[in-house]
Amino acid sequence: LPKPSIWADPGVMVTKGSPVTILSPGSLRADVYRLYRERPSGLWEAKAPQDSSNKASFPFESSSSSTAGQYQCVYHCRKDRSEWSDPLPLVGTGSRED
User: Fold this and answer.
1) Tally of CA atoms within 13 A in the half-sphere of 83 that contains its CB
2) DSSP type of residue 45
3) What is the pLDDT of residue 26?
4) Domain limits for position 57
């Protein structure tokens, strides 16, 4: 299976308290996407979209210091698994009040 890419919208520099969404395209055959964060560790799961976008979305409504970290994504197609994406470093900056 092709290795997924991963990016953050609006970007990897995130103001604390602001929303950020991590996106990862995979395969039209994907069943589930998993997002993993190192330190502090975290694991999120998203079912594959039902439309033809083949892109998983992991929204964080209000970023915080615990949102920052290094993320990777993988997707599963039945019993197969893609390679892990390249790491995405998400960096928290200041706050919206600053």
Assistant:
1) 7
2) E
3) 76
4) 7-92
In order of 9, 28, 35, 87, 97, the CA distances from 48 in angstroms are 19, 8, 13, 21, 36
Is the pLDDT at 81 greater than 90? The verdict is yes
Residue, of 75 and 54, whose pLDDT is higher? 75
Q: Is residue 2 part of a domain?
A: no
Q: Is residue 29 part of a domain?
A: yes
CA 69 to chain centre: 11
Question: Mean pLDDT across the chain, nearest whole number?
Answer: 87
HSE-CB at 68 with a 13 A cutoff on CA atoms is 11
Does 97 map to a domain?
no
